[in-house]
UniProtKB/TrEMBL annotation:
Domain Band, residue spans: 22-180
SMART domains associated with the record: PHB
UniProt-annotated stretches for the region Disordered: 275-341
InterPro entries per record: Band-7_stomatin-like, Band_7, Band_7/SPFH_dom_sf, Stomatin_HflK_fam
Pfam families reported for this sequence: Band_7
Homology family: Belongs to the band 7/mec-2 family.
Protein name per the record: Slipin family protein
Ranges of biased composition (kind: Low complexity): 275-303
Gene3D superfamilies per record: 6.10.250.2090, Band 7 domain
Amino acid sequence: MIEELVTAGLTLGSVGAVYVAAAARVVKQYERGVVLRLGKLRSEVRGPGFTMIVPFVDRLQKVNMQIVTMPVPGQEGITRDNVTVRVDAVVYFKVVDAADAVIRVEDYRFAVAQMAQTSLRSIIGKSELDDLLSNREKLNQGLELMIDSPAVEWGVSIDRVEIKDVSLPETMKRSMARQAEADRERRARVINADAELQASKKLAEAAKEMADTPSALQLRLLQTVVAVAAEKNSTLVLPFPVELLRFLERAQQPAPPSQEQPSMPSPELFAQLQKLLAQPQQQLAEAKEPSAGSSSESPSESSSELERPVPSTAEQSLREQLPPVPEPFDPDSGGSKSGQV
């Protein structure tokens, strides 16, 4: 009798141990447990910790509540400006309702992945190439809204969507490189032209200032000499300032005399003067020669023929340049004058 009781107790104990082992479940902190009893959803979602279910009646399904990182495979598409690109992205999502994630969708991970791929292709067709390359934040927001709209019914919340890479054809890469190079060259030329314009304005102002104060040019020259002389491996050729030459030239000029003194004529002017003075004497000698028709003329007519000719303008200019010279002595003219007296 006692042995039967002991055997029954051991049997019940073993059965109880098996039952507890079959019914005991442990839910982790980042998980939630959804219980289906005979295929029907239990309203209570099991939290983290130790929990019990009815063996062979209940089925506990654990749902991960962490944020899931899902890469989206590269999708090829044609943009709105007819450029073929290949774009890949990454989706961050998490389950907010464990019951909906189990009941409303068969596999919420696969569903989110397929929805991300279709939404990515749709966003590629609606966008231009420049938007895909530069305005990614706006595209990320649009892609997030497109994926999140159906995922809300599945108990899934899309945290964020990021476009990782945009692959372009090689021909497009080369054309874009040429465009960027031309744009940079244009900006460099514009910047260089602006610099030349500003420099020319500053040089014009400096030239005006140096024109008002010539000594500033000398100071600038000395500064340049000092800057060049700092390097001892070069030969310095110093030009002589023109202003200093003008200063020395003014210093060598004699002071203007108080009274004008007659200057000595040059040899050329003196020779020209002798020629001019010799011409009246020759004319006078030719007039003294006797002739047959002139013997009966009166002394008054002969004296009138012996008059000197009127000097020309050239002779007057030469006479003005030379100092006063005494007139040559003429004995005949003197004798005639004495006779007249």
